[in-house]
Amino acid sequence: xxxxxxxxxxxxxxxxxxxxxxxxxxxxxxxxxxxxxxxxxxxxxxxxxxxxxxxxxxxxxxxxxxxxxxxxxxxxxxxxxxxxxxxxxxxxxxxxxxxxxxxxxxxxxxxxxxxxxxxxxxxxxxxxxxxxxxxxxxxxxxxxxxxxxxxxxxxxxxxxxxxxxxxxxxxxxxxxxxxxxxxxxxxxxxxxxxxxxxxxxxxxxxxxxxxxxxxxxxxxxxxxxxxxxxxxxxxxxxxxxxxxxxxxxxx
Length: 251
Hints:
Elements: E1 12-16, E2 20-24, H1 31-34, E3 46-50, H2 65-76, E4 81-86, H3 88-99, E5 104-110, H4 122-135, H5 142-153, H6 165-174, H7 187-192, E6 197-201, H8 206-219, E7 222-225, H9 238-250
Helix pairs in contact: 2-3, 4-5, 4-8, 5-6
């Protein structure tokens, strides 16, 4: 039986005051850490950042985009919200938005490893294979795997010694996860939905550019590039925050 189920309660970090924005983090860092550069938005928005299973205060479960999407939909899409997802969390967000489209005011996806949507592109296929190999290496030391992961997805952070335990714990959670190349969210549902979609990349990796282009083409999403921090697009701070706010207001 999958250990990710409706009995799990997501820990949700909440900051600010205003219309709600749900922020779904990717791998390694939980909700509190992954969205630290978005705190200036709290003057105008209520930020709700869940810890996905196995991160922060949320009980452990294998990382798997489908059951996690049900948790997000059931526990956080109980009212109209702007939904933003980063990396693996962007795949979770796409599934969650399809589960409960009537409560999504807008959907923003940031560099999801949704490799299946652009299968056949050599750069995408190479990253998909390398990602699967990495996360299936459950016996690899976490520090070695973390360095490989950062290089693979384009995280421009130098890992010194010792590596902070929060990063190693996040890497251990990623090892053994459901590979993202298995993801196939119902893009036809998203395309037919009433909410607008924004597909954002960091302008650093051909594979992510191709994936984000394919998402825009197949869902009718707007397309944006926010360079400067590689895969960690939210860490650009003001440029990404301004992009989000303009999109929210248009929505």
